[in-house]
Design goal:
By secondary structure, the protein is α/β, with parallel strands linked by helices. The chain is built from 11 helices and 18 strands.
Length: about 350
């Protein structure tokens, strides 16, 4: 089968699209014929490598996928060959104290398809049967293949960690990225007032069209936090959603109101930042990390997205053979929304 993989960490030139052996399912796995797979920043981090990360070679990238069940292991009964499904890429043991209390994303051995196992940028992928679910009927395969990781991450950040309530104000940095756009859609679904930032007027205008209430171009203002205070009559926002890291961390502490919350899920800029401890304790702020989501988070998110007929914002759809160009576009932050790889039709 055809797959996009790396044999060693490094730049875009390490990506190869060649034929590799087809996967064989274990007794509790299914094999998916992948129709579409979405790109995430995780794919960049896996490709580049990080301390302690050891991968099998060749290692197939990709975490998101939608497809059709092609084969099932001997112990699989809940999924049938021919089912149209989406993949929850979070991998957990199902036995530790965290899994037992329903917090699978806090599992002591938590992993992600494409990081901890072979990924989805391939014509077929073998995954645990418990990780596949019916594809939302209102979505195309390209939409379904690009929505789970980003929506699940945004859902947990806003709904479960920050406990977003109708009427609250939310600041979302770097609108245009997958999680940021999902957070915008979900925050508006929940009845929040949303402020978004970007260095691109084009991205800000597009965000305006899908519900953003206020927009800030951080390249053209002197003080983003002061702009946020001006918009909120001096109070600041209830919640800051941060997928950026070091570059936006100081802004978070100045832009949130007393008793506000900062929730972070990633570091597309640097991973280390100086924290204003005085602002933290004096303003009684709550700082939260968030990774993916639990099985219950996933169930609630899919239900909400399906009921509201939400669709992920797709920047573009590329054939698997063009994965290098597609990843390069994401790495340069040139996209607005998700990039999908159409693996088959």
């Amino acid at each position: 089968m055809k797959a996009a993989f790396i044999r060693e960490h490094g730049g875009l030139d390490r990506l190869k699209v060649e034929h590799v052996p087809e996967p064989e399912p274990s007794e509790d796995e299914v094999v998916l014929d992948v129709r579409s797979a979405g790109l995430n920043h995780l794919d960049i981090w896996v490709r580049k490598g990080r301390s302690g990360l050891k991968l099998s070679e060749p290692h197939i990238l990709g975490s998101d996928a939608a497809g059709i069940v092609a084969a099932a292991g001997a112990k699989v009964s809940a999924v049938t060959v021919g089912d149209e499904v989406i993949l929850n890429p979070g991998l957990s043991c199902g036995r530790c104290e965290y899994c037992n209390r329903g917090e699978q994303s806090e599992c002591t051995s938590f992993g992600i398809v494409g990081l901890s196992s072979q990924g989805t940028f391939a014509e077929q992928v073998a995954v645990p049967a418990r990780n596949v679910f019916p594809k939302p009927s209102h979505m195309s395969f390209n939409e379904a293949g690009a929505f789970v990781l980003a929506y699940l991450t945004a859902w947990r950040m806003l709904m479960m960690r920050a406990r977003l309530r109708p009427g609250q104000t939310v600041l979302i940095h770097g609108i245009g990225g997958g999680v940021a756009l999902c957070a915008l859609q979900l925050a508006k679904l929940a009845g929040a007032e949303v402020i978004v930032t970007s260095s691109s007027d084009e991205k800000l205008d597009r965000a305006d069209k899908i519900g953003a209430d206020h927009k800030i171009n951080y390249r053209t203002v002197d003080d983003v936090a002061q702009c946020v205070k001006d918009i909120t009559s001096g109070a600041g926002v209830d919640i800051a959603v941060d997928t950026v890291g070091a570059a936006t961390w100081p802004i978070d502490f100045s832009a949130v109101r007393r008793g506000g919350k900062v929730v972070i899920c990633g570091v597309t800029s640097d991973a280390e930042a100086v924290t204003n401890l005085r602002a933290l304790y004096w303003n009684q702020l709550t700082i939260m990390g968030s990774t993916m989501g639990s099985n219950e988070d996933f169930r609630q998110m899919v239900k909400a997205v399906t009921t509201a007929k939400l669709r992920p914002i797709l920047d573009s759809v590329s054939p698997l053979e063009n994965v290098t160009d597609a990843m390069g576009k994401m790495e340069a932050a040139e996209q607005f929304g998700k990039i999908a790889l159409q693996v088959s039709t």
